[in-house]
Amino acid sequence: MVKAVSMEGNGSAQGQANGSNGHVAEDTVMPRLSTQPPADMNWQINLQDKIIAITGANRGIGLGIAEVCLANAAKCVYSLDLMEPSEEFAALSKANSGRFKFKQMDVTNEESVKKAIDEIVDEEGAIHGMVCNAGMTKHQPALDFTMAQVEQIFRLNVFGAYACATAAARKFISLGIKGSIVFTASMTSYRPNRAGPSAPYGGTKAAVRNMAHTLAMEWAEYGIRVNSISPGFVRTAMTYAIERAPDFDLKMKYYGGMPRLALPQELGGAYVYLLSDTASYTTGIDIPVAGIVGAW
Q1: Whether residue 186 lies in the annotated active site
Q2: Which of 78, 162, 190, 201 is catalytic?
């Protein structure tokens, strides 16, 4: 017999049915949630047997995430990217024969996204994780942006991420898989980036971070977890100019924390955790991976 669970009464019909004080009846048996982990759960943090898709993984942060996923036993990682694979992609693919693959996909085109996910499932039999990582930025004063530039950044960073997340969620539900979706947000979703300001970019990443919270709430009943990660300064082609600015060292000293840019691979552990079954009760959160830099 399960003991009564106390609930705050609010005058609703349900509260009145449970009694004037809002208590659940003594003989009520609370159902076991279908989203609970299995009894024989392996609590080691790894991605064994997992099929993971990462948008924009032909280079940069996405490629670093892919490398760490592969190092943590992912069965197969797919890069979904509009651009052709880089030399770094080819080297990682060669080092992980048959486990790192590429599909050309446009995140802003719903049919392209659906087609890529369908093909992954056709080839692998499942998909377990989607990392919505593809994005772009442009560092310049707000008054120098044209509306066309702003729309382009929002279309890729927000609409593209939404298209990938919803397509993955539909596939998880149809397959009965308790999948994981991880968005790449940014520390600029919390605070402005003084070293390389971009109001449109910060706005898109704030939207992504909030969207992750809401989708986590909506899809929890399916066992689908949705989280985000907010990197600080990461050494990629997009941050090339920032690191080479004549006052870069002074800016890093001003920020405090680790006075350097992160390697893309240094973000990977957070993604692996959120994609793994060990994070079965972790949803609706953002994990800053910023070495303090960029936080304030």
Answers
A1: yes
A2: 201
The phi, psi pair for 25, rounded to 5°, reads -60, 150
Rounded to two decimals, what is the model's pTM? 0.82
CB atoms within 10 A of CB 14: 11
253 is catalytic: no
Give the CATH number for residue 60.
3.40.50.720
Q: How many domains does the chain have?
A: 1
Please identify which of the residues 205, 228, 271, 273 carries the catalytic annotation. Answer: 205
Question: 225 — phi, psi (to 5°)?
Answer: -105, 140
pLDDT, one tens digit per residue, over 79-95 is 999 999 999 999 999 99
The single residue listed with the structure tokens 């539900």 is 173
What are the tens digits of pLDDT across the range 22-33?
444 445 555 444
Domain that holds residue 169: 47-289
Mark whether 254 is an active-site residue.
no
Q: Is residue 103 in a domain?
A: yes
